Amino acid sequence: MSTPSGVDRFWTRLAGGRSTAIWVACVALFAISPLVAPGSLGPAPILSMLPFAAVLAIAAAGQTLVVQQRGLDLSVPGMIALAAALGTGLPQNHGWPVFAAVVAGVLGPAVAGLLNGLLVTVFRVMPLVVTLGMNAVLLGTVFSVAGGTPAGAPQSLNQFALDRTGGIPNTALIAIVVVGVTGVLAQRSTFGRRLTAVGVSERAAAATGIRVPALQLLAYGFAGLCYGLAGVLLAGYTKTPPLFLGDSYLLPTVAAVVLGGTALTGGLASVVASGAAALFLTQLGQLLRAVGWPDSTQLVAQSVVLVAVVLARELVPVLVRRLRRPRPVAAAV
After folding, report:
1. Is there a domain that residue 3 lies in?
2. List of long-range contacts for 234-238, beta carbons under 8 Å, 24+ apart
């Protein structure tokens, strides 16, 4: 029997891990960026890209937990918009202290997420129906809170979102903490292993004594918390967020989850890989803008990349198995 070569072992490892491809794609993208658009990896472009990558990474962390439970959260736009409206509208229109408004902006979507989870787990309504309806309710709430007019972010919130600590944007540091802590909890803790078990099979998890509804409820609630934090940070960074601030984050969060290796059928998930995919998608968008592509093509590019990566994930293991299959030796005459 022949020993696999180093190249064979590399491709086998690459095909064996669902989240490996996004790390390879990130390295490749950052390697070709200065070749395609010179100057696209300078300090200024990177520092302007990181806050948006951070917001997407935080939101994708929430979407990852929902997808892991065999759901798909279509209320992301409304969640982010609600967080932005509360964080900016409450101080300007109702005289709330900034800190209280920020807390409300983060916790408001978390409550909505818990309601999503309640309808899905207790009343057994389909996640797509629940989250789509919740999105409409949240957007209506945004109009009520904002009075139909976008409010400006408080100066302290805007300054915090723009500031850097140790040369790194505060938004990026928060994203690193959120994604890192969530990733460790999801993969290394008993709670995370139970979440994975529920995502793989609710019936089998329940048979082992796991409280399936409670865990799924927490997953949806934590997802809302992530959306709320992302919305508040984005509102602070953009200074005057539009009422439909979250509309452009639905497809990217789903794309980040899928590119990160989480299957839409639930089960195994990697929050950290979803964060890497968020960085990849944001840098891809910046690169396309640098070469002159209009913003209207960003969704098309994201969709093409999403399809390509999913196809590669399915085809590469097949090709590797065929390459490693021993060839029949011709019989001697």
Report:
1. no
2. 234/55, 234/80, 234/84, 235/83, 235/84, 235/87, 235/88, 235/105, 235/153, 235/157, 236/87, 236/153, 236/157, 236/158, 236/160, 236/161, 236/162, 237/51, 237/55, 237/158, 237/161, 237/162, 237/171, 238/153
Q: Domain total for the chain?
A: 1
326 belongs to a structural domain: no
Residue 229 near residue 174 (C-beta atoms within 8 A)? yes
96-135 per-position pLDDT tens digit: 999 999 999 999 999 999 999 999 999 999 999 999 999 9
Q: What is the CATH number of the domain that holds 24?
A: 1.10.3470
pLDDT by residue (tens digit) across 24-49? 889 999 999 999 999 888 899 999 99
**120 token code pair:** 């899905």
Specify the pTM.
0.90
For residue 196, give its domain range. Answer: 18-30+39-321
